[in-house]
Model the fold of this input.
Amino acid sequence: MTGRGVADPGLDGDPLVFVDRVRKSFRNTAVLNGISFEVSAGDVCCIIGPSGSGKTTMLRCINRLEKIDGGMIYVAGRPVGVTVHGTRLREMHPRDLAEQRRDIGMVFQSFNLFAHKTVLANIIEAPVVVKRTPKAIATSEAHALLARVGLADKANAYPDQLSGGQQQRVAIARSLAMQPKLMLFDEPTSALDPELVGEVLAVMKDLAGDGMTMIVVTHEMNFAREVADKVIFMDAGDIVESGSPAEVLSNPQHQRTRSFLARVS
Amino acid sequence: MHPDLTRPDAGKPVRQLDAKDIVRTPKPRQWIGTAIALLLASMFVHMLVTNANLQWNVVGHYLFSHYILSGVLLTLELTVLAMVAGLIIGIVVAVMRLSANVLLQQISWAWIWFFRGVPPLVQLIFWYNLASLVQSVSVGVPYGPSFISWQTNSLITPFTAALLGLAFTESAYAAEMIRAGIQAVPRGQVEAAHSLGMTGGQAMRRIVLPQALRIVIPPIGNDTISMLKFTSLVSVLALPDLLYSAQEIYARTYQTIPMLLVATLWYLVLTTILTVIEHVIETRLRRGHRDSGRTTAYQAGSRWRLLPAWPGPAPKALS
Done:
């Protein structure tokens, strides 16, 4: 295994995430047509766009829940899911891929909490099983994380006893328990009742304020406007435009961006 | 204030109606059916009481005899061992079936194909006669020298032959059930495990299997009851289970019907006990999973409440 983090991106200015000409298709349908962008450490990047534009697929490629057909994705300087043997590229051994994924947290639209485990057990599962953190330490860290997401009293509840907003906050705490360098959010509020969206966005804002690097696929334009350092607008597998929230959301240059923004606001 | 009792179309007041005044609808057909059923049941009970051929005194004499009780014990022992072995093999075969490795998939397919296809009775006799096919079993280099060797006849007793046949048959059915259970666990559970850095094996052991096994508990309970009855097949190997013990007695005394009654009563007692145990396990799992909190109408009162609740709406298609 090669050493992780060829360079510390926080120090020398290399991007933490570098997406380079990524192509992906499902059967014969092209979903990503050579996407390139980068995200610096500590930045929040929001990906917006209509349904079917490929934004969720793009996000899932970053921790290799989806394989890519062309191009390359680098996280912390390392290619994701691929090892380099001289001139040849090989798919990474599943064990090494699992290790690489420890540093990349992910929050899903449908929460995906482990349904047979309590909130506390959900949070300590990966630290104990994957990192071999002693259970007592993992448990006290989990309580601190639960307090941070405002659910200190729910440690012993089961996921199906919680509201959607509470489940999503637990899911965020569960990801944070692995102390990732990067957090991916796949439409984290899209499955929530409108009155529960705010509590999840508040936790995400707090996290962004703490300097976490985040890539967020979202339909929450206000969140993107307030929190994002960079907004990427995707349509039909391409990046139509990207830039600061002010550029993309307030002063879009392309007709497709303008018509999308007109539809969602 | 009374609600408006006028019909807007006719403008006429109608009688004030109240749902609490609803009376029970007469169900004459149900009453007639019940009467006929009671009549038939009473005829059956009358037969049980008055038919001297049943020889209830003989039934009572043998019901708790040492011989029958040891048969009951062997039947239980075979049931438990065959189920435990069958489930363990079944889990392995199910995981192999869903593995990405084509070789493992095909071995698993062949295993299920064979052991689901051959009747357990044929298997029992086959295993029992294994010594006629292979005289000895040894550990060593294929086609080369062997290190340890056993006579097949000393390995395959009637008991091991019975256990192999029953456990292998069960493993094929268990594998298919467990595979269905694994596939019923939402894909997002595995994705979440992977995104946290768990390997495929860790995700399977820690996340998927516990949920899959919970889903398949009702069919496994069903299989256990089936297995209890299938153990009666071992009487062909002269293994003194419940049925064979009863047969041995009536072979001597010609009291066939009362001895079969003894066996029937015991089988019914045992299956009833298993049913109760299954019910208790289901209830406890349900309580462990959700001791308070909201219960949807779909979950309330259904045995399927022990399923883990769907962890959120089904994920949307790619966006």
The two ends of chain B are 55 Å apart (CA to CA). Strands of chain B lie at 136-140, 146-151. Chain B is about 65% helix and 5% strand. The first strand of chain B starts at residue 136 and ends at 140.
